[in-house]
């Protein structure tokens, strides 16, 4: 069975999908990713699909599932490297990749994840003064 | 024909080899990498072989060729993610992976490349005073 490697780069896990995904490979990848997110405490998952000529409903569903699992484990998922033809086919097939965020390439995906985390921290910062004013009232 | 994607992350190009390499795929990868090094001005190439169960003489030669091409284009090549079994087989087969540097994982590979570049700069710094003293003599 082929196994898709999960690479850790800083605070991000990177997966480059190059092989045709079977049921088994997809399930294995989901398990591996979930385990690595927990083990490393990473807050971002980037899935590179540069090598894919076609994203069918099976792969689309797999990406959505990975995004949902990561979300539960407090990690953002960004799909990067989608070819123009793949995007066109996705729309023509009516596949909307629910809950999946995309970026042009790995670097922009990293920026997107960093920006999202910053926003989250920003939100926390905004919350704190509120909490304090509640304490001092 | 399968095509192995080349991902740019900061100053480094990352290649994750997951498919069986044919002659064509190998040549294509070498060309793609050389083009990307020139286009991006990256100084490091990391080749991840986590997914490979076997590194035979063909793949070993391909890695050496990539390292040599990168060297000429002023980029360091580091092979990461080698499995213990692969290392054992390589030694048993008498394949020495000439001119190839290795690291445990992508992050250590990045550190190795960064350290190498720093050393180079350090060397330049040492050179400059010498040049100046030559000028002022």
From TrEMBL, chains A, B:
One Pfam family named in its UniProt record: STAS
Domain (STAS): residue spans on this chain? 2-113
Q: Which domain of life is it from?
A: Bacteria
PROSITE patterns per record: STAS
Among Gene3D superfamilies, the record links this protein to:
STAS domain (3.30.750.24)
In the UniProt record, the signal sequence range is none
InterPro entries the record matches? Bact_StressResp_Reg, STAS_dom, STAS_dom_sf
> What is the protein name for this chain?
STAS domain-containing protein
> What is the native source organism of this protein?
Micromonospora harpali
- Tell me the lineage of the source organism: Bacteria, Bacillati, Actinomycetota, Actinomycetes, Micromonosporales
